[in-house]
Amino acid sequence: MKTPISGTLNVNNQRDAVARPQPCFIVTAGGVARNGRWKELDGEFLLPTQVLASKFRGKFLAYLREGFKVLSPTGKVKAKDHALAAPGGMSVRRCLNLLNKLGRVKWHADIEPAYEHAHGVYKYVGRYLRRGPISEKRIVGYDGESVNIGYTHPEKHGQRTFSLRAEAFIRRILSHVPEKGTHVIRAYGLFHPNCRGKLDNARADLGQPPYEPLTQLPHAYELLMRMIPDWEGCLCPVCGSLLKTTQVYHRPHAPPLRMAA
What are the beta bridge partners of residue 148? Predict the structure, then answer.
């Protein structure tokens, strides 16, 4: 839904300067009132930053503490893969003490200002969720043992590249691959399938037609043009027509001479 006010939210620890994946949310700056009508946000932000950061800190640490317990909230013994284990060299007691210490540290919730339309929000989050953990352009070399990788911001490091052992590189890549069946995107509120009626009412208040789910997936080229309007990678450099794959040959079989061009 193209709401007039929308934004993204990133949550992290204020003292943590190491880049790592962070939970990201899209929140409409408004909602449906008790009378079923759409109500826009009165101020610039949906929630106070300090209140949200404190709430997230409490919930996050509480779930971690619950994970270290042997019993579930219903009193059943957890399976081994459902309980958290202490890292090497640490005990569970030490981990709990660390969580208590983190509970006294001020956390920061980074709330971006409102966008004029939701398209920019979904474009940003879509790239964040769907693209790979590292761009192929950053992999600049491999000597059989180590991978040479370019920094995204070399001006912050004093050098343009750094090296990783191949095993470490593969391990870091695989750490970004979700397990089979993992839901990396979840919908709540108006965007939940069970709230289709409320969503259509809100869209009507905003002068938009009812939501219609896609019955046929768009062509890959159409999606690329939506994201990058000036992209010409799939066009013929001579006539400008859309290039189409007619046949694929796999090594070591070479194409016939008559089709080589």
Answer: 141, 163
